[in-house]
Amino acid sequence: MYIVNSARNSTRSAPVFYVEVVTMILYNAGEMGSYFLVEPPYQSALEDISKLYPQLRFTQNVITDPAWVQCGDLMSISDDTLASFYYANEWKWRKASLTVFITNEADCDGHASSHLATGLRKLIISSSLAPDIENKIKWPTRLESGTGGKSSIARFVKMFTGFLRHFKWTTVGLVCDVKRNPVIRTICQAIRGGLGSSLHTNITMMEVDGFSSDSNFTFVMEELNRQTRVILYWVFGGTFRKCMLAAKDANMTEGNHVHLLNIMLRHPVFGNYFWKYGDTQDELARIAYSTVIIAERDAGDDFPLPGTDRYILREGWRNVSRDKFNTTYGPDVVNFHLTAAYADDNCTSGERVPASKPVGPTGGWRQHCQEAVQSYFPLENRKVWLRSVRFANGLELCDPAIRSV
User: Fold this and answer.
1) What domains are defined for the chain?
2) The dihedral sign for the CA sequence 328, 334, 340, 344
3) Which UniProt keywords apply (predicted)?
4) In the chain, which end has fewer C-beta atoms inside a 10 angstrom radius, N or C?
5) Helices 309-325 & 35-52, crossing angle to 10 degrees?
């Protein structure tokens, strides 16, 4: 087992507040873990904290092991492993002003941290959606935060319900990458139930394993083709590319199908959703991706002003991940933002990804929004009216309101 202790002490003055953070995660980032993405960014963030807040001492303890590839490898031993680490280092927690357990999707269901933190009456901050550990009476020290909890599901259901209703699409399929982490299955089941209840229809759900060489994505897409023409995806970036390549082979990218993808920007686990991988299938992927609408969730809802302390802390670690691992935390230059009809206002937008030409603010958002909506949704006897919305960070999105002429 690898115990990664990242700490930075101020040299300018003695620390007056000492924080210890404990996190248990899977090792391989590509297998629903995050060590490769987490450790260097944490190191960068800790260095920035030390520079900006000299009276704060912050230590990150990342507990992982190369043998922990998927949740099944970790969950059966997580309680004992975490407890052994904690009690072997009690001297650290006694010295600390505050000890916090932090879990994310790479901690699978978060049970080990929740059990231990509750027993110790320590604060635990978690983004894992696990219904049986959300009881505030039973687990009083647990706070839900981040991009993976109930709020994310509510936003997803709200936005796509409005979008699907607007275009009168009620026969919908849902593809979920669930095999490596039971939390993802829980999320997808909640989405399926929420959409089904809102649309008064049954949502077909297909479970896939994007990391298995035995997965038959051609079968998955052909089965969906028999049942629906509108497909939602809650999958990792690499899995989505495999789905779209299979859809291309099955002639499901010719304009008769709608592919809707939900992604979370600035997320350290879910990966890069760009079509370009530098392999022989790039051209096919580029063509297939041109038929996709992406609902883009940016975890940085209140984007800090450049140059501020918050900007340095929040953007620095993302730059490290991008530079060292080519991990994309923001849209590529070919991506194009378009607020979906009836989308909520929590920095969620529908996104059209034209593969033929890059667009940006200098090209005129209003014109590109008009072209994107009309090219993807041919409308008879109706015209697209666009309302421009500008946010504090300078990003301009377009809100299409489709009205009868």
Assistant:
1) 2-144 (3.40.50.2300), 150-305+327-404 (3.40.50.2300)
2) positive
3) Membrane, Transmembrane, Transmembrane helix
4) C
5) 150
